[in-house]
Amino acid sequence: MRLFLQVTALTMMLLVGIFLGIDSAERNIQKMEGTQGAPRAIHITPENGRVEIAVLGQVYDAETPAASPEAKQVKEEIREAAASGKNLLGQVGNQVGHGIRLGTRKALEMVVGWLEPGK
């Protein structure tokens, strides 16, 4: 427990130090360039349901996320992709992933079987 608290405290101090260092470096760079009071490198402002992001002076508007597709439409697309046979690499990846999952489950069952008392 003591080690966990020490690691957590050191990590927090490191993160605070990094943020303070970046902030002071940016202020000093602006002072050297003579651009004090200029907009920050990255500035995010939410306004009226929109979010504006300014990166190095360029302003970008964040778009609202697309609506999620309906379940029927997703199932239909999956059926079409499986029927076309063009997605061979995806099928191979799924089979390999399934095999890895089964192998891992069997290995865990065997290890847990060793640890259970009375067997």
Give the tags.
119 residues, alpha+beta, 14% strand
Explain how this protein is built.
By secondary structure, the protein is an alpha+beta fold. Among the domains are: 1-33; 90-118. The protein has 3 helices and 3 strands. A 3-stranded antiparallel β-sheet has the order 1-2-3, with no helix packed on it. β1 (42-47) and β2 form a beta hairpin. It is flat, with a radius of gyration of 27 Å. The model has no long low-confidence stretch (mean pLDDT 78). This is DUF3679 domain-containing protein. It comes from Planifilum fulgidum. It holds the Pfam family DUF3679. InterPro entries: Uncharacterised_YqxA (IPR020534).
Low-confidence stretches: none
Largest sheet composition: 3 strands, antiparallel
| Biggest sheet, spatial arrangement of strands | 1-2-3
The rounded distance between the terminal residues' Cα atoms is 34 Å
Structural category: alpha+beta
Protein name: DUF3679 domain-containing protein
Organism: Planifilum fulgidum
Pfam family, one: DUF3679
